């Protein structure tokens, strides 16, 4: 019979996957890489999240100005990931799950508003 995985070990699985996947994606980001975004390839216009990987790569390299230029919401996304990791690693659950939906909708609204501003001002990344 197989032993059950201890709770303390299972708690690390999802955050570890997030960190490893994020690190791999960001480490391989380059300025001259191909566009992989289905929205951008279909419409010819950068999607609301286009530029985020390059922004995270710049942020990791310490180039804050270039990170903000690539996508101004990179700092919000990094803060959100850090909060998620802190909650996941603490083993606690959100007591009011309705807040989760509210946070997702609020985040999505912010992303759309910033995208519309970037679209209107011509500051979207090239496709």
Describe what you observe in this structure:
The protein is mainly alpha-helical and 127 residues long. Helix content is 65%, strand content 0%. It contains seven helices and no strands. The chain has helices at 7-10, 13-27, 38-43, 52-60, 64-70, 74-90, 98-121. Helix 4 packs antiparallel against helix 5 (64-70). The radius of gyration is 17 Å and the shape is globular. The model has no long low-confidence stretch (mean pLDDT 81).
Quick structural overview:
This protein is an all-alpha fold and 127 residues long.
Defining key terms:
127 residues, globular, mainly alpha
Question: Helicity range of the residues?
Answer: 55-70%
Counting helices, strands and paired strands, the structural category is mainly alpha
C-alpha geometry: globular
Overall pLDDT score: 81
Oligomeric state of the chains in view: single chain
User: Biggest sheet: strands, sense, closure?
Assistant: none
Low-confidence stretches: none
Proportion in β-strands? under 5%
Number of strands: 0
- Give Rg in angstroms: 17 Å
List the topology elements.
Elements: H1 7-10, H2 13-27, H3 38-43, H4 52-60, H5 64-70, H6 74-90, H7 98-121
Helix pairs in contact: 4-5
């Amino acid at each position: 019979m197989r032993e059950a995985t201890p709770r303390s070990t299972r708690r690390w699985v999802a955050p570890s996957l997030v960190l490893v996947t994020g690190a791999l994606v960001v480490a391989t980001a380059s300025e001259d890489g191909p566009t992989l975004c289905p929205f951008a390839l279909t419409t010819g216009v950068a999607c609301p999240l286009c530029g985020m990987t390059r922004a995270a790569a710049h942020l990791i390299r310490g180039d804050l100005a270039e990170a903000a230029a690539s996508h101004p919401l990179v700092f919000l996304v990094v803060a959100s990931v850090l909060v998620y990791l802190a909650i996941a690693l603490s083993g606690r659950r959100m007591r009011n799950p309705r807040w989760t939906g509210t946070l997702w909708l609020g985040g999505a609204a912010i992303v759309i508003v910033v995208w519309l501003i970037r679209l209107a001002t011509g500051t979207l990344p090239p496709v």
